[in-house]
């Protein structure tokens, strides 16, 4: 099935995604990046470059490096935006008919042609990555784009050799990426703070469309402005410290720019960061170092006004849509700048609810376009609904804890097996107590069934191997079997409707597990320590028995004392004491064991079996030692 | 799973005993089953690819941080004052050994430095940080390497930042 690309053709960067296995996925470009700079250039040799290479040569070739072309697409020459760009852009914008053209290496191109070059690269990189020809695409545009701008974007796609199946609004795509198109009547705000522009849209989900109720924004507010305030602060601080103005030194300024961007990113997760650029410049007194500490509160102080500025268009958009902020059910964040904690907090404070940021805000628009593409190409035609287990399944093991075999949220049908062993010497039966739930404590979960596997040959604890197999079919029927691997004896139980719990019941059990998490964790730790202590005592006693006269009375006494010490504490709640006593016993037993091996080796005889914790080919330590999982 | 016996062979003559609608359902299920298996198979391949990719990315991330330190060593070397006393000379040499050690680490990671004065600028490899005009040099020739470029295999971890000759 030929793929349809979902393309976010951005002002600063573009991004492309496809649907694969029913899920949207961003495609990396040839350079290995998930976004491509929307930049086109022609060098002196007449070679054209697009994306990162074009951006890299911009400094030395400003007249022939075209960027932010999206600001010009579908515009009339006498539009205010065009007049403004003519003044600030380093390249030449000329009149063609009523519209515009841009000069690049003495040739004139329409914004559609330039955009087509970017789309061509995206298409070519996607084809290379997927190994198949791509002929169709969905391209996103800002919600405020008029018919001429939309038509021009479509033309750009067609020049690039793409059949443009749909032009969709960026905020709609973002909402689609979150699957917010399902609930009729739902009201959504999309807050898009990108590299150079800020857009806010109010959406309402109607019968089978997502309607844009209003849009607003600031076409010249974005990440670049935030970078600028940080750069200015760094320059000012350095000037205060060293009396040198770095803004005149272009190379130093570039290092400051890089450092500012890094600081901005680091302060999204850390409370403070160090701006460390040693040897940034020098004067008659020698080299100078730029070393500053920037705190998040400093950054927020610097950026406060910029963030506050976004609330004005936000309020206007709500007003235009005739909605109160309390009516908004979901807020979707788009654009890299929305990762900034201050931005998130401002939006959260404004609406009184947390905005959605789980989908990468740089990619969310392209991903949403891909979702739309998936619907068009019918990827989700015959939807086969797969169920998941709402709660975990497992069995009760030594110490009354639940050992989970199938974790909750596992897609079914599914199967898993694990090998367990006996807890006591000569144990000939094991009880399989099948449980469902999230508690660590077996008794806190729901019992689904019990059965007994008997006929296990008499053997020391830990030796028999009992394989317990869980298998849930697509209808939620759970089969649990236990097989003694030594004799092949087997028992099983079938539990109907294991996934058919009511939503309330599932919630109650999950909640139950959460509230008991701490005490359960403690109990589990205690059981683990006790099991470890039991095993240590068992192996050490066995070793003492087998050692006979191979060890001195003193050595025997030392180990036996440690065994007694561990026995004395093993049932207490003092984990540290148990651990300490177990460690001491382990050290003492190992020393004796090592000596026994040396004696055996000295005799040239076969190795003694009864040593320390040395395991044979299939180690079994305690009753719930994991052997394998399928 | 006992339904398998009910699946009829493909209806060659069009006169089979199974109703067309049932047959269509069988085909749909078989196609869906095959797709699910294929999806799983592809997922495994994707995961293997992704694992390699993640390893490379982690390496790249670490490389980025190490490169920044090496850059500062390079920068320090540019500012080395003349006429250092013998004691300071020896001390400096020691520091430069630390730099070599760090370079050794990057080499072991598979990183390779590139970018030298005299090469011709290529936007695939270099990032133009500025320009000058020198008559005796070729157009687009690299006049100064501000910071070295770094490659990991054939992937550019960071392009070399250079000043180039621009003959207007």
TrEMBL record, chain A:
The record's listing under Pfam families reads: HSP70
The family classification in the record reads:
Belongs to the heat shock protein 70 family.
Basic and acidic residues bias locations:
609-630
Induction notes from the record: By stress conditions e.g. heat shock.
Q: What's the protein called, per UniProt?
A: Chaperone protein DnaK
Q: Name one GO molecular function term.
A: unfolded protein binding
Tell me where in this chain the PTM Phosphothreonine is found.
197
Keyword Nucleotide-binding in the entry? The reply is yes
Species the sequence originates in: Candidatus Uhrbacteria bacterium GW2011_GWA2_52_8d
Q: What does this protein do?
A: Acts as a chaperone.
> NCBIfam families per the record?
PRK00290.1 (NF001413), PRK05183.1 (NF003520), prok_dnaK (TIGR02350)
Q: Which InterPro entries match?
A: ATPase_NBD, Chaperone_DnaK, Heat_shock_70_CS, HSP70_C_sf, HSP70_peptide-bd_sf, Hsp_70_fam
> Region Disordered: start and end of each range?
596-630
Annotated keywords = ATP-binding, Chaperone, Nucleotide-binding, Phosphoprotein, Stress response
UniProtKB/TrEMBL annotation, chain B:
Family note:
Belongs to the GrpE family.
Give the principal location in a single coarse category. Answer: cytoplasm
Organism of origin = Candidatus Uhrbacteria bacterium GW2011_GWA2_52_8d
The UniProt function text for this chain reads: Participates actively in the response to hyperosmotic and heat shock by preventing the aggregation of stress-denatured proteins, in association with DnaK and GrpE. It is the nucleotide exchange factor for DnaK and may function as a thermosensor. Unfolded proteins bind initially to DnaJ; upon interaction with the DnaJ-bound protein, DnaK hydrolyzes its bound ATP, resulting in the formation of a stable complex. GrpE releases ADP from DnaK; ATP binding to DnaK triggers the release of the substrate protein, thus completing the reaction cycle.
Q: Which GO terms describe its biological process?
A: protein folding
Keyword Cytoplasm assigned: yes
Signal peptide residue numbers: none
Q: How does it assemble?
A: Homodimer.
Region annotation Disordered: where it falls in the sequence: 1-21
Identify the coding gene: grpE
Q: Which keywords fit this entry according to its UniProt record?
A: Chaperone, Cytoplasm, Stress response
Task: Tell me yes or no: is Cytoplasm among this UniProt entry's keywords.
Answer: yes
Q: Which GO terms describe its cellular component?
A: cytoplasm
Protein name, UniProt field: Protein GrpE
- Which taxonomic lineage does the organism of this UniProt entry have? Bacteria, Candidatus Uhriibacteriota
